């Protein structure tokens, strides 16, 4: 048995093929590259029951991941996050079978750790010494910290409005950190120049082929955790869209292996009304999105005006009879409070947008009675201290609490 | 097979015995109560290999936990946090076999979720409708959120200096939150009065018997993750000390079951020099600690001037030939940066104190060549944004990075 059954890289646009021993970025045609595997061998040699016996992290699927030598694996125990039933919230929105895949329980507190773990491991394998990336905060934090563990130097550029906690993570890792007075697209231009000037490996979203392989493990895990029965709907907060592309890739791969059967779940891209390029493109039945001018949302992770992989996101939506939907910040933050109050989970605004989307899609009849619905919460609420505004009474030593102060009594 | 093999509650001081169907607080003698189980039945009916096949959360040990009816379990997927090898940091401090149990990867981002999951579940089972507690932040956040999921109302009082993120967690859960201009001991007095005035269930540290059962799962998991071989040393950041008491209880229980053999690991209580009552008591060979006046440390979770369970912590240290050690804030924060840089993990200051303690104990020869050492990191660094001070250059749109700005090149 091989550790990885990786076969080659291919371009989903022009069908060019690349080997996996060298460092690659985009295809010469400008498209992101995808990883393919030796499906016949894999089908013959790996059984899903075998996977179930392994350690509860994403490396349990190592045959389906691109790292060929186990010694290159850079891991901090990421993956196999819980899939949690949400019966009380579900009852509140008339969705009987509601689940949350909670990506808050992962190193750095967001799903970005998956892409970083696999991406950094493969970067180590192909000899990368230094990489650079623009980020809205969480991806940069994950890549800088996994880079530190791998001994790879990193340069990270983020908007000055990105969550402050992510600055700490990047700085403490020993990375070169820069803020920019602008958006992630402005950070991207600065990184692009640095990559050219200094020959750095560019790990911007989809500019290296392996982060998507890390993120696809969310799809693999959902299938395994549902006992290899696919849900009816999976909703994903969509900025760069790599998570959604990854889940779509994962479920297709599981079908190839015969581990799941039947129709794929309908995939839903959830965006913010202040930055909804994918939603607009889907509404207009287009295959690519347009740059969203003056984008703005408190859900910082999905403030991406134009995603390089937009055509892959839209393809996944169309092929699965999914949809795209935009949620305003107010509805998002109201839903964040509801999830905490009804299910005891402090989720991130991006995750809250997904639950608000479910509420709306149920009302519109798009989600039907009895359907099984999986919401991706992409991160822990504790990474976004500024989205919650509260007023708290302060007592002095020796004060006592008055009963009428206690709510609900 | 029963879901729980709980037998009764007992007092470790006066040996009084209590049933487990009623709500209990302290023993009539004032001591915390502990939970006992039906060891003969358990030994006959439960095998450790059986546990290994279960879901990766702390409820895999349900027979060793106090909740008798599975329907009362309030879970968000907590437990089976990773045990991570730290070879680079280990080499840096000449400790060859260094591991970190990472309690950052758990709901609410700290180990407090374990106590809350089991404590709230059992509170639900014995019919609690409303509880109250003082907290340094993290425990209150965990209990309020798990309380919300269980449908139990909570009243939480915390020092106004407690980490601000924990205010958000408590407030969003719908709990009654109060700040106090003072320490956790002042918050405790206010809670004590409210408990008396309004007949609330008091879930202050060790004033209810079940939180410790949740925390003991850290010990169960360490044993299972080390393939039922006990490490030589386990170090724990010690405020209230429940984690250390729990780990000691767990390892003794595993010995009773015959799942582990040999000497228990030497248990080490790590405190801050600004609040070190257990260290002082241990140095003076006493069985109880004295109230630490004017306590102060950036590691807020271990700012506990006098712990109710101090005698149990000291007993565990003495019985295992362990020790107690104090670390100053500067060494703690320097170690936090080192762990990020060398192992890519952004840990909390309390966890960083543990690694600083290992460094010191190795220098002193107390930790010996080749010993296996497990450090508990009790929470994610992202919950403490104010402990990291960094300066970051800000660029304007269109600026470029100068090569000399890039460190390490």
UniProtKB/TrEMBL annotation, chains A, B:
Tell me which UniProt keywords the record has, alphabetically.
Lyase, Pyridoxal phosphate
Q: Does the keyword 4Fe-4S apply?
A: no
This protein's cofactor list reads:
pyridoxal 5'-phosphate
What InterPro entries does the record tag this protein with? Answer: Ser/Thr_Dehydratase, TrpB-like_PALP, TrpB-like_PALP_sf
Top-rank taxon, per record? Bacteria
Question: Could you tell me which Gene3D superfamilies the record lists for this protein?
Answer: 3.40.50.1100
Q: Where is the Tryptophan synthase beta chain-like PALP domain?
A: 74-379
PANTHER family xref list? L-THREONINE DEHYDRATASE CATABOLIC TDCB, THREONINE DEHYDRATASE, MITOCHONDRIAL-RELATED
What name does this protein carry?
Threonine synthase
């Amino acid at each position: 048995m091989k550790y990885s059954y990786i076969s080659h890289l291919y371009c989903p646009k022009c069908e060019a093929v690349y080997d996996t021993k060298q460092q690659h970025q985009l295809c010469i045609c400008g498209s992101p590259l995808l990883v393919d595997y030796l499906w016949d061998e894999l089908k013959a040699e790996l059984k899903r029951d075998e996977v179930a016996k392994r350690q509860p992290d994403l490396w349990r699927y190592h045959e389906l991941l691109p790292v060929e030598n186990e010694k290159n694996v850079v891991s901090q125990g990421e993956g196999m996050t819980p899939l949690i039933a949400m019966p009380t919230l579900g009852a509140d929105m008339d969705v009987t079978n509601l689940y949350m895949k909670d990506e808050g329980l992962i190193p750095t507190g967001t799903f970005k750790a998956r892409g970083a773990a696999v991406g950094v491991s493969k970067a180590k394998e192909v000899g990368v010494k230094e990489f650079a990336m623009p980020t809205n905060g969480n991806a940069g934090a994950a890549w800088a910290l996994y880079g530190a563990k791998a001994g790879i130097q990193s340069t990270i550029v983020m908007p000055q409005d990105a969550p402050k906690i992510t600055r700490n993570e990047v700085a403490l890792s020993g990375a070169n950190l820069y803020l920019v007075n602008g958006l992630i697209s402005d950070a991207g231009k600065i990184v692009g120049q640095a990559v050219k000037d200094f020959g750095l490996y560019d790990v911007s979203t989809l500019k290296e082929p392996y982060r998507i392989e890390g993120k696809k493990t969310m799809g693999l895990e959902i299938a395994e955790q549902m006992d290899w029965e696919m849900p009816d709907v999976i909703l994903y907060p969509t900025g760069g869209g790599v998570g959604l592309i990854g889940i779509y890739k994962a479920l297709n791969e599981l079908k190839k292996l015969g581990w799941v059967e039947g129709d794929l779940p309908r995939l839903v891209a959830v965006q913010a009304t202040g930055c909804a390029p994918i939603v607009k493109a889907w509404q207009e039945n287009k295959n690519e999105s347009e740059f969203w001018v003056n984008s703005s949302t408190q859900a910082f992770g999905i403030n991406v005006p134009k995603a390089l992989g937009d055509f892959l996101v839209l393809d996944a939506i169309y092929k699965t009879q999914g949809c795209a939907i935009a949620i305003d910040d107010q509805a998002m933050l109201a839903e964040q409070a509801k999830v905490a109050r009804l299910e005891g989970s402090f989720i991130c605004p991006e995750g809250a947008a997904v639950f608000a989307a479910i509420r709306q899609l149920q009302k519109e009849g798009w989600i039907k009675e009895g359907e099984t619905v999986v919401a991706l919460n992409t991160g822990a609420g504790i990474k976004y201290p500024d989205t919650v505004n509260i007023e708290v009474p302060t007592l002095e030593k020796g004060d006592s609490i008055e009963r009428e102060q206690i709510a609900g009594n």
